[in-house]
Design brief:
Number of helices: 2
Structural class: alpha+beta
Shape: globular
Largest sheet: 5 strands, antiparallel
Oligomer: single chain
Radius of gyration: 13 Å
Strand order of the largest sheet: 1-3-4-5-2
Number of strands: 5
């Protein structure tokens, strides 16, 4: 899995090159393993999502594996501890 820049991701998003698969509270590797088992993947159009309401520490990394893009958000806060939220996209 290769890391891509936020600038490259925004360009894909702005140029309508992505379809949304979904948002999950698991890591990208687990999602990729499950996606590779599927014969057909259903997607939705993308939209901008604001996660500015996060109270705590947020680290966002973006990865690409073949036709899949993963936006992985690692959140640390005092109340909930460490959480991983991954948004998965399919390249058109």
């Amino acid at each position: 899995m290769d890391k891509i820049t936020k600038k490259d991701f925004k360009a894909l998003h702005d140029n309508n090159k992505l379809s949304l698969i979904g948002s999950f509270e698991i890591d990208k590797e687990t999602i990729l393993n499950e996606l590779n088992k599927l014969d057909k993947i259903y997607t939705e159009p993308t939209s901008r999502v604001d996660i500015a309401n996060v109270k705590g520490y947020l680290i966002t990394n973006i990865y690409q594996d073949n036709k899949f893009i993963f936006v992985e958000n690692n959140i640390t806060d005092k109340m909930h501890g460490n959480s991983v939220y991954t948004i998965c996209y399919l390249l058109k």
